[in-house]
Structure formats: structure tokens, C-alpha cells
């Protein structure tokens, strides 16, 4: 049996992890696994994990490794992940990275690529504060950078219901950027040391970034 491809997208809030993960999912048939989305679903469902995560997420901090790992392991055990996954927003701490290594080793799998989306912090507040998503299918849009072809109608599913995230305000974005630099950016060297790191300039247009990522993923999955 072929081993599943495991790809990691690293980058600060607004770097384009979700946007690119969804494009890679479509192009390569991999499954996007966003710990942010899983946590927001837990908050919406009012689970114990969701209740514990809610205040931390609103403040822009990182949810505890214990909660995140429990949610991630459950999701990775689902059968649709067998072809491969794009980890979007995970790992975010050295503890999570070590736990992922252990989990994959137990499955005889390994990380195909850890891709760092390199951006300027200054541009991220604009990207994040202009973001909205389709309430029907989750497709992401932006007030300036990515609008639906027909105003107010999702390109993917035709829904007219759109929503904005509660943590997408300038104050929380600054806290999320700080958390990224303090706790997640060190993982760039961690994966460089393992020989699986690629860096992609993510300041260009969405399709340009997508082409750079597709070239890396083709090599890994090819
Ligand atoms: P999470 O949901 O992961 O949010 P994030 O990392 O802050 O990342 P974002 O979703 O804000 O940005 P993105 O990189 O996906 O950018 P996007 O593609 O949307 O996490 C939220 C919270 O959950 C965390 O703060 C934390 O509390 C908690 N959490 C999650 N995972 C955790 C973990 N592992 N451990 C602990 N806590 C965890 O793009 C942004 C906008 O820009 C969009 O509108 C898009 O259209 C636009 N855009 C994208 N690319 C471009 C481009 N190239 N040019 C112009 N515009 C672009």
C-alpha cells in the first residue's frame, strides 16, 4: 500500500495556508486538515474542548497542545485521510511537532514536505481583516484580493451566505502574529534540520503561489 503524503503548511495568520490548502486539496485529491477549523467546529458544537478553546482563540493565543492533539488524532483516524493530508495550522509548537513525528512513525509514515509561506507581517493585518468565507462550503474570499465572480454569490456552491471570523480584528491578529513568531516560527529550523523544508514567497498573487506549491507537491506525491 502506498504511504499517505503528509504535507505541512507553515505561516503566520493571513499567509494563505487555508487558501492554498483548499487549492491543493482539489488539485491533488489530498485532504485539508485545519486545526483552526476543527477548533471552531468544537466551539460551535459546545464540546468540552470547544469551551476550553474559545477564550484562548478570541485572545489570539494558542490552544493547549493536549486539546489540539486530541482533536487532530481523531480527525487523522478517519478513512478519507488515507491518500494524504495537508496540515494547515498544525503543528504550531515544538510539542505538537514531536507528537506528529511519533504519530506518523507509529503508522510507518513520514513528512513529505513542510512548506513555509514567507510573507511580510505588515501586509497580514489587511489580508486577515478583509477576509470572509462562504457559509455553505467554506470557500475563502477577500474584500480586495479575491471576490466572487458574481457579487454576493459563492463561486463554488452558489450560496449567498457569507461569514467573518470573530478573531479577524486588528488587535487579535497582532496577538496571533506574536504567538506565531514566539512559538511556531522555530519549527522552520526544526523541519530544515530534517531536510523536508521548502520556502515559498507567499507575497505574490494567489495563483502564482499556488503554482510554486504545486511544483513541490508534485515532487512529493509524484
Ligand atoms: P487558524 O484558523 O489556523 O488561523 P491562522 O493560523 O491565524 O491562519 P488564518 O486562517 O488567519 O490565515 P491563513 O494563513 O489560512 O490565510 P487565508 O488563506 O485565510 O487558527 C485560529 C486560532 O485557532 C489560533 O489563533 C489558535 O488560537 C487556534 N489554533 C489553531 N490551530 C492551533 C494549533 N495547532 N495549536 C494551538 N492553537 C491552534 O488568507 C487570508 C486572506 O488573504 C484571505 O481572504 C485570502 O483570500 C487572502 N489571500 C490569501 N493568499 C493571498 C495572496 N497571495 N495575495 C493576496 N491575498 C491573499
Structure description:
This protein has 222 residues and is an alpha/beta fold. The chain has helices at 17-28, 35-45, 48-59, 65-76, 94-106, 121-129, 170-184, 186-193, 206-221; strands at residues 5-10, 31-34, 84-88, 113-118, 131-134, 140-142, 162-163, 197-201. α4 packs parallel to α5 and α6 packs across α7. The longest helix is centred in the C-terminal third of the chain and has 16 residues, at 206-221. It binds BIS(adenosine)-5'-pentaphosphate (AP5). BIS(adenosine)-5'-pentaphosphate (AP5) binds next to α1, α2, α3, α6 and β6.
The H/E string reads: EHEHHHEHEHEEEHHEH
In what order do the strands lie side by side in the largest sheet? 2-3-1-4-8
**Helix percentage:** 40-55%
| Discrete helix count | 9
Cα-atom radius of gyration: 17 Å
Helix-strand makeup class = alpha/beta
User: What is the overall pLDDT average?
Assistant: 94
- Quantity of strands, as a count: 8
Strand content: 15-25%
Regions with pLDDT < 50 over 5+ consecutive residues? none
Question: What small molecules accompany the polymer chains?
Answer: BIS(adenosine)-5'-pentaphosphate
* Ends apart, CA distance between termini: 15 Å
Amino acid at each position: 500500500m502506498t504511504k499517505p503524503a503528509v504535507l505541512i503548511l507553515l505561516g503566520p495568520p493571513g499567509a494563505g495556508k487555508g487558501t492554498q490548502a483548499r487549492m491543493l486539496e482539489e488539485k491533488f485529491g489530498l485532504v485539508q486538515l485545519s486545526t483552526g477549523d476543527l477548533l471552531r467546529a468544537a466551539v460551535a458544537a459546545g464540546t468540552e474542548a470547544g469551551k476550553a478553546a474559545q477564550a484562548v482563540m478570541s485572545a489570539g493565543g494558542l490552544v493547549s497542545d493536549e486539546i489540539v492533539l486530541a482533536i487532530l488524532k481523531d480527525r487523522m483516524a478517519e478513512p478519507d485521510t488515507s491518500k494524504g493530508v495537508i496540515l494547515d495550522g498544525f503543528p504550531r509548537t515544538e510539542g505538537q511537532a514531536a507528537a506528529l513525528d511519533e504519530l506518523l512513525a507509529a503508522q510507518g509514515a513520514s513528512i513529505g514536505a513542510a512548506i513555509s509561506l514567507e510573507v511580510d507581517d505588515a501586509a497580514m493585518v489587511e489580508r486577515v481583516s478583509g477576509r470572509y468565507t462562504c457559509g455553505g462550503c467554506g470557500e475563502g474570499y477577500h474584500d480586495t484580493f479575491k471576490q466572487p465572480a458574481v457579487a454576493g454569490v459563492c463561486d463554488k456552491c452558489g450560496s449567498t451566505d457569507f461569514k467573518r471570523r470573530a478573531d479577524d480584528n486588528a488587535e487579535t491578529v497582532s496577538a496571533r502574529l506574536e504567538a506565531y513568531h514566539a512559538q511556531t516560527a522555530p519549527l522552520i529550523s526544526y523541519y530544515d534540520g530534517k531536510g523536508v523544508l521548502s520556502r515559498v514567497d507567499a507575497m505574490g498573487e494567489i495563483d502564482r503561489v499556488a503554482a510554486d506549491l504545486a511544483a513541490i507537491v508534485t515532487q512529493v506525491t509524484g
